[in-house]
Amino acid sequence: MAPESSANTPSTTENRGNIAAASGRRASITVELAERSYPIEIGTGITGELADVLRQEVGDLSHALVIADESIQTHWADPIIECLSSIDNVRVNNTNVPSGETTKSVEHLSRLWDWLLSSGADRRSVLFAIGGGVVGDLAGFAAASFTRGIRFVQIPTTLLAMVDSSVGGKTGINLSGGKNMVGAFWQPELVWIDTACLQTMGERDYLSGLAEVVKYGVIEDAEFFDWLCKNAASLLARDHAALQHAVTRSCQSKARVVRDDERETSGRRAILNYGHTFAHAIEATAGYGAILHGEAVSIGMQMAASLAIDMGLCDESLLTRQTELLTACGLPVQFADADADKMLPVMMRDKKVAHGKLRFILPTDIGNVQLVGDVDPAQVRSAIQAHR
Amino acid sequence: MAPESSANTPSTTENRGNIAAASGRRASITVELAERSYPIEIGTGITGELADVLRQEVGDLSHALVIADESIQTHWADPIIECLSSIDNVRVNNTNVPSGETTKSVEHLSRLWDWLLSSGADRRSVLFAIGGGVVGDLAGFAAASFTRGIRFVQIPTTLLAMVDSSVGGKTGINLSGGKNMVGAFWQPELVWIDTACLQTMGERDYLSGLAEVVKYGVIEDAEFFDWLCKNAASLLARDHAALQHAVTRSCQSKARVVRDDERETSGRRAILNYGHTFAHAIEATAGYGAILHGEAVSIGMQMAASLAIDMGLCDESLLTRQTELLTACGLPVQFADADADKMLPVMMRDKKVAHGKLRFILPTDIGNVQLVGDVDPAQVRSAIQAHR
Ligand SMILES: NC(=O)c1ccc[n+]([C@@H]2O[C@H](COP(=O)([O-])OP(=O)(O)OC[C@H]3O[C@@H](n4cnc5c(N)ncnc54)[C@H](O)[C@@H]3O)[C@@H](O)[C@H]2O)c1
Ligand SMILES: NC(=O)c1ccc[n+]([C@@H]2O[C@H](COP(=O)([O-])OP(=O)(O)OC[C@H]3O[C@@H](n4cnc5c(N)ncnc54)[C@H](O)[C@@H]3O)[C@@H](O)[C@H]2O)c1
Ligand SMILES: [Zn+2]
Ligand SMILES: [Zn+2]
C-alpha cells in the first residue's frame, strides 16, 4: 500500500522488490503481509508530510492517542501532536512514559490501559507510539490488547527502533523474571521514520543501533555490506543521505524476513538472531547496563563468525571484513570480561536451545547465514575466548 | 479436525453442517476457522476419553499448565489433572484462581504470567483453563499473551461457559473502569465439555446460563427453539440427554456465527448481542450482583422483542412464545426495578452505539434477527416499561 503517486516510481538505487521512492526525498517500503500489509515511510524532516500519509494509509482518523517517551516529548513528540491536532475533526490525547527499559512493565502497561479507557479510546481510535524500542514495544502491546486490538502507528526515534523494533509487529513487556515474556504479534498501520530524530541521540546509543544495521548486511544483503564498508564514516557523522540509505536498506531487510515468517513459525525469522545468543549471554553476565545491547550484538557477531570458521562453514576473510566494518562503525569487537564459564550456562537456557542442544545462526559468507543445530560446547567456548 | 474415525459418521438428529457424533455418546463440532479450526467435544462423564482426544487434536504435549477456579478444583479439576498426569512424558503444573468476576483483573493476570514463567512454560507448553467464563477469559488471555501466544484448551464447567464464553476465542480481563476492556482474540486448540459438571452448579447460576441457550433459538435456530419448548422440563431437571442436545446445538450456533465473523468485523457476530444492550443497562443500573447476567439477558430479550413488535418488525406471537419458553426455563421475564431514566443514558454509552445512535439486534421471527440502527429513544423507553 505505498502511496499511489509513487508506487510506480521506484528509485533507481534502492529498488529491491518492496521499495519505492515516495516523494523527492521520502522512501517507502511495504511490509507485505496480505491484509496486514503496511508502509514504512523514511525521510528527514518530514513531519509536514504526515497528515497526507495518514489520510492515505490510516484512513478513518478521529481520535489519536499519543504515547511518547518523556525525554523526547518536546523535541520530537510535540511537532507530531501539532500536526495531528491540525487535521480536521481529530481529537488528540497525549501521555508520557519514563525513559528506560524498566518502563516495559506490567505496571506501566496497566497505567496505559487505564489511560486509554479514561481518554475515551474505542476500536476506532488510533494509537501513536513515539520513542525508542521501549515505547514501541509497550505502547504496541497496549494497542494490541485494548478492546482486543486497536490500530497503531510506530514513530521510532532511536536508530535501533527505526531499523529493528518498530518493524515486524513484535510487541510486549518484560516480567520481573524475564525479558519480553509477554506480548502479541500486532502489526502497525504505518511506520513513520524521520531520521532527523537521530541527531539528538547520545553517541553510545546511536553506535549501538549501528550493530543491527551491520547485522542485515551479514545475514542477507551483501551489497549493503559493501556499501556500509564504503560509507561508515558518513554514518558516524550522521550524514542525512547516508542515514536515509542505511535505514531504508535495513528496513527492507527486516520487511523481507518478516514477510516470510510473520509469527516465527517457519524458522526464517530466526536469522535476525545472528550474534544474539552470544549477545544475550554477554548482557546477562556483564550485569545489566554495563554493556549496551548493540555493543553486545557486535561482539556476539564476532563470536558467531569465529564459531562458523571453526566449524568450516565460512573462511577467515568473513571475520576480517566484519571486524573492519564494526570497528569503522565505532563498535567493540571484543569483550575483556567475556567469561565462557558464566556465558555457557546462560546460553543453555536460551529460548533458542531445543532439547538442550545449542543452536546458532552462523554465516556461510557475507549475505548468507544458516541455522546450525547441535553445536559442540567446546567450540562455543573457543569462539568466546577468541574475542576477549 | 474432528477425530478421523467419526468425521464420516454424522449423527442423524444433530447433523447441521459442522457436527458429527464423535463416539457412542460424545458429539464433536468443528469451529471452522481455516488454520485456526478446532473441535468442541461434548459428552457426559468423558474424562476417560480426554487423553486420546488430546493426542489427536493437540499433538505435541509435554508440559500442561492447569489453571482452575478454586471452587471446582477438587470436583472437576483434579480428575483432569490425574488424566493429564497419566499421559507419558507430560509434566503438569496446577494453580488456582478465586471464584468470581473480580478475578478477571490485571492483578490476577500478572500473577498468572509470573506463575507461567516460574513454571518453566514456553511456546510448546499447553494451558488448560478449567472453570466458568471468568477462568476461561482470564487464563485464555494469559495464553494469548505469554511469549506472544501459547496453545490452550478450554474446559468449561458452567452452562454459560459451555454454550458461550469457551467458544469463539474472545479472551480478556476487566479494568476498574470497564468490563472486558482488554484482551485478545485467541482461539483454543480444543473445547472439552463434560456436561456432568453441570450437576454441581447452583440453581440460579444454572438457570442464568439457560438464557443464552434460548437466545440461540431466537437468533438463528427455530428448530432448536421448538425443541426447547418441548424439553424445558428435562433441562430444568438437568437430564443428561437433554443437556447434551442443548449444549451441542448451542455450540453449533455459536460456531457458525464465529466462523462467519471471527473478529467482529463483518457485523454478523453482533447477533450474539440479542437482548444484551438492554441486559447491560439492567445489570449496570440494578447494582452489580443484584441480578445475574443471564437473568438480565432474559429480560433484555423480552424488551428487544417488544421493541421489534413496536417497530413492526415481527408480530406479537414471537413475544408470546419467547415469554412461554423463558418462563418454562425458570427465567424472569420482567424486572420491577427497570428504570428507563437510568437505563437509557447507559445504553447511549454502550459500545454498540455508533455516533450517538441506538442500535439493536431485533427479531423478525423465531430464528431470525437483524441489526436495526437509529432507533427512536421513545420506543426504547416503551419497550423497557413493557417489562417492569
Ligand atoms: N519489537 C521488536 O522486534 C524489538 C527488536 C529489538 C529490540 N526491541 C526492544 O527495544 C528496546 C530497546 O530499544 P531502544 O534501544 O530504542 O531503547 P529505548 O527506547 O530505551 O531508547 C534508548 C534511549 O534513547 C532515548 N531516546 C529515544 N529517542 C531519542 C532521540 N531521538 N534523541 C535522544 N534520545 C532518545 C530514550 O529515552 C532512551 O533513554 C528493548 O526493550 C528491546 O527489547 C524490540
Ligand atoms: N469470552 C466470551 O466470549 C464470553 C461470553 C460470555 C461471557 N463471558 C464472560 O464469562 C464470565 C461469566 O461466566 P460464568 O457465568 O461461567 O461465571 P463464573 O466463571 O464466575 O462462574 C459462575 C460461578 O460458578 C462457579 N462454578 C463454576 N463451575 C461450577 C460447577 N461445575 N459447579 C458449581 N459451581 C461452579 C464459579 O466458581 C462461580 O462462582 C463473565 O466474566 C463474562 O464476561 C465471556
Ligand atoms: Zn538486537
Ligand atoms: Zn451474555
Describe the structure.
- Chain A contains 14 helices and twelve strands.
- Chain A has 388 residues and is an alpha/beta fold.
- The first copy, chain A, folds into two domains: 3-10 and 211-385, Up-down Bundle (Dehydroquinate synthase-like, alpha domain); 27-202, 3-Layer(aba) Sandwich (Rossmann fold), CATH 3.40.50.
- In chain A, the strands form three sheets. An eight-stranded mixed β-sheet of chain A has the order 1-2-3-10-7-6-4-5, sandwiched between helices. The first copy, chain A, has a two-stranded antiparallel sheet with strand order 8-9.
- Chain A is globular, with a radius of gyration of 20 Å.
- The relative contact order of chain A is 0.10.
- Residues 1-17 of chain A have low confidence and may be disordered.
- The interface between A and B is medium-sized, with 28 and 28 residues.
- Bound molecules: nicotinamide-adenine-dinucleotide (2 copies) and zinc ion (2 copies).
- One nicotinamide-adenine-dinucleotide (NAD) is lined by residues 69, 71-72, 76, 99-101, 104, 131-135, 137, 157-158, 160-161, 164-165, 168, 170, 180, 197, 200-201, 205 of chain A.
- Residues 212, 276, 293, 297 of chain B line the site of one zinc ion (ZN).
- Chains A, B: Residues 1-16 have a biased composition (Polar residues).
- Chains A, B: Residues 96-206 form the 3-dehydroquinate synthase N-terminal domain.
